[in-house]
From TrEMBL:
Matches recorded under Pfam families: Ifi-6-16
Membrane topology: Multi-pass membrane protein
Keywords per UniProt: Membrane, Transmembrane, Transmembrane helix
Localization per record: Membrane
Family listed: Belongs to the IFI6/IFI27 family.
InterPro entries xref list: IFI6/IFI27-like, IFI6/IFI27-like_sf
Coiled coil: none
GO (cellular component) term, any one: membrane
Name by which UniProt lists this protein: Uncharacterized protein
Length: 168
């Protein structure tokens, strides 16, 4: 199945946006202007934002930082430094409060278990049925806001898939 023209254009826009971010020397009005020009009159859509995010994830996973502009390098370096500091703080906290952390993990597991048991009931309550949204339900009203196009991998489509699997 070939991608639609809109998807191809969106993918090209995502790549262009990442290229702009990769080559920017500094954040600011000039960068914002270039990004707004690339996005165009249509503006940001959920789908375009997801494409940019996936492209950025692939970019950050690259070993070679040579093609990165200074703005992206600085943002990456400061984020890594902050993550390392937070991780150190977390490790120290765990060392100082092992029982509290263990209780928190245990409570989280119990909470997830309860949520898993309640999920079918909650999905039915919201109107996510095994054949699609139930007429007159919250899910039906939510689906109507998409005007016939539910974005792939959206929260709505995820809940609907769960409703079709879990509630039967």
């Amino acid at each position: 199945m070939s991608p639609s023209t809109a998807e191809t254009t969106g993918s090209e826009s995502a790549i262009s946006i990442i290229t702009i971010l990769r080559t920017a020397d500094a954040p600011g009005e000039a960068l914002t202007s270039r990004l707004n020009e690339e996005v165009g009159a249509e503006g940001w859509s959920e789908w375009l934002a997801e494409q940019v995010l996936h492209t950025l994830e692939a970019t950050l996973g690259e070993e070679n930082m040579e093609p990165w502009g200074q703005a992206l390098k600085d943002a990456y370096d400061s984020t890594i430094k902050l993550a390392q500091e937070e991780f150190k703080t977390l490790v120290e906290y765990v060392k100082e409060h092992p029982l509290e952390v263990a209780a928190g993990v245990l409570f989280s597991l119990v909470a997830f278990g309860v949520l898993a048991r309640l999920m079918p009931w909650v999905l039915r309550l919201l109107g996510f049925g095994e054949l699609g949204p139930v007429e007159g339900s919250f899910a039906a009203r939510w689906q109507a806001t998409y005007a016939g196009f539910v974005p792939k991998e959206s929260l709505f489509s995820y809940l609907q898939r769960l409703g079709m699997i879990v509630t039967n």
